[in-house]
Write a structure and sequence with these properties.
The protein has 272 residues and is an alpha+beta fold. The protein has 3 domains: 98 residues, mini-chromosome maintenance (MCM) complex, chain A, domain 1 (2-Layer Sandwich); 102 residues, Beta Barrel (OB fold (Dihydrolipoamide Acetyltransferase, E2P)); 48 residues, Rubrerythrin, domain 2 (Single Sheet). Helices cover 23% and strands 34% of the residues. The chain contains 6 helices and 10 strands. A 5-stranded mixed beta barrel has the order 3-7-8-10-9. A hairpin with a 5-residue loop joins strand 9 and strand 10. Helix 1 crosses helix 2, helix 1 crosses helix 5 and helix 4 packs across helix 5. The longest helix is centred in the N-terminal third of the chain and has 19 residues. The chain is globular, with a radius of gyration of 21 Å. The model has no long low-confidence stretch (mean pLDDT 92). The structure holds zinc ion. Zinc ion binds next to loops. The site of zinc ion (ZN) has 8 residues, from loops.
């Protein structure tokens, strides 16, 4: 058995058996109520998880993507046993164990290149929120010449068409079949250092955070939010359109907590 399988089983055990100070089966109760509440995710406090088994600390630090995949797979596996009808009725790629309160809290101004690809915990005031847009994740294209349907996974938010038709072997622009393709809710928000975190005399720093699935629209501009997610990069371009060797950074959110609503003092704006 690989360590991956072992940690997946261990996480399933955590979901089934973890009790809080009052002896409540915190996560198990939530898992059982998912279908009743029409929920697709369960938020997991990382501090609870590592108090259950410290092995998750190592896994999350060494391979954040594998860690997130492991806990998601474990949640799906548990639901398949407990609530198979619910699992069969929804898109299972939407089922998420969302990690909050990760151990490595980094101030926005302390984010550096060494954090790229790592799981981080950040906090700040939400300043702007984009509209919620559909993000294409699994496309079905149709060849304009022979009508063949061609599925194509979309990677990292880039629109990708098949280069040529596998049936008639022609290079042709494809038609996207929206009805047969899968989309996910997507939103970009901007988070700025809160006044308490701001060193005297400094301008506040901010970072873009990408929200997907059931965490879109859970917070509003002006909220103090805490996000656990992975620091990702996108290419930077010069004014003439040439690709630069520098990159822009953003946080791909996994778990989101709203710790305080403070709508009064902050000048807020919504933009596209
Ligand atoms: Zn064709």
């Amino acid at each position: 058995m690989s360590s991956y399988d072992e940690s997946q089983e261990r996480f399933e055990e955590f979901l089934r058996t973890y009790k809080d100070d009052q002896g409540t089966l915190t996560y198990w109760t939530r898992v059982q109520q998912m279908s009743i509440n029409d929920e697709t995710s369960v938020s997991i406090d990382f501090q609870d998880l590592i108090s259950f088994d410290n092995v998750f600390m190592t896994l999350a630090a060494e391979d954040p993507l594998k860690f997130i995949e492991t806990v998601n797979d474990a949640l799906v596996a548990v639901l398949r046993v407990e609530d198979p009808d619910y699992v069969n009725s929804i898109d299972i790629t939407l089922i998420k164990a969302r990690i909050t309160n990760y151990s490595e809290h980094v101030a926005l101004r302390a984010i550096r290149s060494k954090h790229i690809g790592k799981l981080l915990h950040i906090s700040g005031i939400m300043m702007r929120a984009s509209e919620v847009k559909p993000l294409l994740v699994q496309a079905v294209f149709q060849c304009r010449i022979c009508d063949e349907k061609i599925p194509q996974t979309q990677e990292e938010g880039r629109y990708t068409e098949p280069v040529r038709c596998p049936l008639c072997d022609k290079k042709t622009p494809m038609r996207l079949l929206s009805q047969e393709s899968q989309f996910r809710d997507w939103q970009k928000v901007r988070i700025q250092e809160s006044p308490e975190e701001l060193p005297p005399g400094q301008m506040p720093r901010s970072i873009d955070v990408i929200l997907e699935g059931d965490v879109v629209d859970v917070s509003r501009p002006g909220d103090l939010v805490k996000v656990t997610g992975i620091l990702q990069t996108t290419p930077d371009f010069s004014r003439r359109g040439g690709r630069l060797a520098t990159f822009n950074i953003f946080i791909e959110a996994n778990g989101v907590e709203i710790s305080e609503k403070e709508h009064e003092q902050i000048e807020i704006s919504e933009e596209d």
